[in-house]
């Protein structure tokens, strides 16, 4: 009987680890809930849906800025503002929008870049 219980417990432990989706380290960089967004990248009530804006810092390097803009065509670069995220003097502020095709893939790709430390919801003023 003890052997049967051990076998069942081992099977359950293995099955949950095999079928559970592993969280990628880059997913932890996205500091807002993607589940609040619909398939178009919009959130809110049906009669007032809106795009979610997000901000992140990018090294002030033309190659890296172009890489980011190639990944996310909605990104606007701000050279003079640190944003709420607090970009350093060696970085520029980038603000993008979720209302775009494949927004989840875009965010995941951005988050996979070593140069990007965090992607946070932008609260415009």
How would you characterize this protein structure?
The protein has three helices and six strands; from the N terminus they run H-E-E-E-H-E-E-H-E. The chain is α+β, with helices and mostly antiparallel strands. The protein has one domain (23-121): Alpha-Beta Plaits, CATH 3.30.70.260. The strands form two sheets. Strands 4-5-3-6 form a four-stranded antiparallel beta sheet, covered by helices on one side. Strands 1-2 form a two-stranded antiparallel ribbon. Strand 1 (42-43) and strand 2 (50-51) form a beta hairpin. The termini are far apart. The model is unreliable at 3-22 (pLDDT under 50).
Q: Please give the domain count.
A: 1
**CATH fold type:** Alpha-Beta Plaits
The amount of beta strand, in percent, is: 15-25%
Figure out the total of helices.
3
What's the total number of strands?
Answer: 6
Report the CATH C-level class: Alpha Beta
Low-pLDDT stretches: 3-22
């Amino acid at each position: 009987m003890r052997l049967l219980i051990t076998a069942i417990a081992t099977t359950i432990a293995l099955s949950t680890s095999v079928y559970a989706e592993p969280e990628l380290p880059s997913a932890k960089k996205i500091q807002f809930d993607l589940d609040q967004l619909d398939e178009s990248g919009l959130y809110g009530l049906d009669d007032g849906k809106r795009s979610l804006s997000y901000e992140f810092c990018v090294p002030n390097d033309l190659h890296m800025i172009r890489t980011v803009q190639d990944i996310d065509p909605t990104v606007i670069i701000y050279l003079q503002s640190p944003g709420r995220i607090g970009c350093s003097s060696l970085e520029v502020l980038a603000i993008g929008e979720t209302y775009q095709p494949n927004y989840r893939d875009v965010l995941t790709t951005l988050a996979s870049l070593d140069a990007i430390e965090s992607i946070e919801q932008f609260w415009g003023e």
